[in-house]
Write a structure and sequence with these properties.
Layout lengths: L17 H10 L13 E7 L2 E8 L4 E7 L13 E4 L5 E5 L7 E7 L4 E9 L1 E6 L3 E6 L8 H6 L1 E8 L5 E8 L2 E6 L5 E6 L6 E6 L4 E2 L3 E2 L4 E6 L6 E5 L10 E7 L2 E7 L2 E7 L3 E7 L4 E7 L5 E7 L7 E5 L2 E5 L3 E6 L4 E6 L3 E2 L3
Parallel strand pairs: 18-20
Antiparallel strand pairs: 1-2, 1-29, 2-3, 4-5, 5-6, 6-7, 8-9, 9-10, 10-11, 12-13, 13-14, 14-15, 14-16, 17-18, 19-20, 21-22, 22-23, 23-24, 25-26, 26-27, 27-28
């Protein structure tokens, strides 16, 4: 999941032609690749001062800049863009703008090899895609809030149809949202409020707008969140935990949630399915990728990726797990115990 600075929604249809995008690409001194078909996952990166969509091919073990995001006056180069994939395979890109200007929304057309601009999206904080619906989590007020004031806050969530982008319903969840997670198999999303040992996770049913029973972290310093089929998976470290020579990962179930506790490192990324949980754990200059059986907690595989001091993204592909840091991508084969690291064409901006 995921840095959390996004906004709210107001949709206007607008297409950007391939010719316009080509002219934008040429003007930015960005060398574009052609490996759209081989790219199994995408990120955005800053290349020569431009924001570009980067395709990662884990089979060929390379990453290429594929499309330049068109610039507009008022674009915010401090807040990170967001790139998410809906259940039907559509990649949605939201780029922030300064002040009160609305974000801009694009889809990545992998068949036509272009970005299509869909118009302004309002000031969105986070896009959380489900099976057929998308939760657009509004930004919460920033600035000096006391604990009491923060406790009285609520966060607005606008539910949209993932295919048409039309608004379906709106709802609110108590408190400012700090972590979000979803699963393409379900139209339920997990929303966490609070931080560290005070994290509380609620499950929001996008089809009804109702929020289910909240799950507390029970003293765990929660660092990452997943939501397979609407079941919260919380991962983090006990208080006082620091980098160690070895990483110990344990799994337990509590109050309808799966809790993953990591000793000896920091949980940088988390992915969970119906049967397994995978965590990327930083332990200083290196990172461990550990996969567990979700039912028994048994460790299924572990690989130490040397030289990776953070992992902002963890995604599963046909050719192994992909971990992404500031300027590199790593493909990990857990069954074979091997990994390959290669460079991004720029510095990662979406995660």
């Amino acid at each position: 999941m995921i840095p959390l600075v996004r906004r709210r929604m107001s949709y206007t249809a607008l297409a950007v032609s391939a010719a316009v995008l080509a002219s934008c690409s040429a003007s930015g001194d960005v060398e574009l690749g052609t490996d759209w078909e081989g790219s199994q996952t995408f990120v955005t990166a800053s290349v020569s001062g431009r924001t570009v969509v980067v395709g990662i091919n884990p089979s060929a073990r390379h990453a290429q800049a594929l499309a330049v995001v068109p610039e507009k006056d008022g674009d915010d180069d401090v807040r990170a863009p967001q790139l998410v994939r809906s259940a039907d395979g559509t990649w949605w890109l939201s780029t922030p703008r300064k002040g009160e200007r609305p974000d801009r929304l694009f889809t990545l057309d992998t068949a036509r090899h272009v970005l299509d601009e869909k118009g302004d999206t309002g000031r969105l904080r986070e896009l959380v895609p489900g099976k057929s619906l998308v939760a657009a989590v509004h930004g919460s007020p920033e600035g000096g809030r006391s604990a009491a004031e923060a406790g009285r806050e609520s966060t607005g969530v606008l539910v949209r149809d993932a295919r048409t982008w039309k608004g379906v319903r709106s709802t609110r969840v108590p408190g400012p949202v700090t972590l979000t997670a979803s699963d393409p198999s379900s139209d339920t999303v997990c929303l966490a409020t609070g931080q560290g040992a005070d994290t509380e996770v609620s499950v929001l049913d996008l089809t009804t707008g109702r929020t289910g029973r909240a799950v507390r972290s029970a003293g765990l310093q929660v660092q990452q969140l997943a939501c397979p089929a609407g079941t919260p998976v919380l991962a983090g470290s006990p208080a006082g935990n620091g980098p160690g020579a070895t990483v110990e990962v344990t799994l337990r179930r509590a109050d309808g949630a799966t809790v993953v506790s990591v000793d000896g490192g920091r949980v940088d990324a988390l992915q969970a399915s119906g049967g397994t949980v995978a965590v990327a754990v930083n332990r200083g200059q290196d990172s461990d990728l550990v996969e567990l059986d979700r039912a028994s907690g048994r460790e299924l595989g572990r690989v130490t990726v040397t030289g990776m001091d953070n992992s902002y993204l963890l995604r599963h592909t046909r050719d192994g797990w992909v971990m992404v840091s500031d300027s590199t991508a790593t493909v990990v084969d857990l069954s074979g115990g091997t990994f390959w690291t290669f460079g991004l064409p720029g510095t990662l901006t979406s995660f």
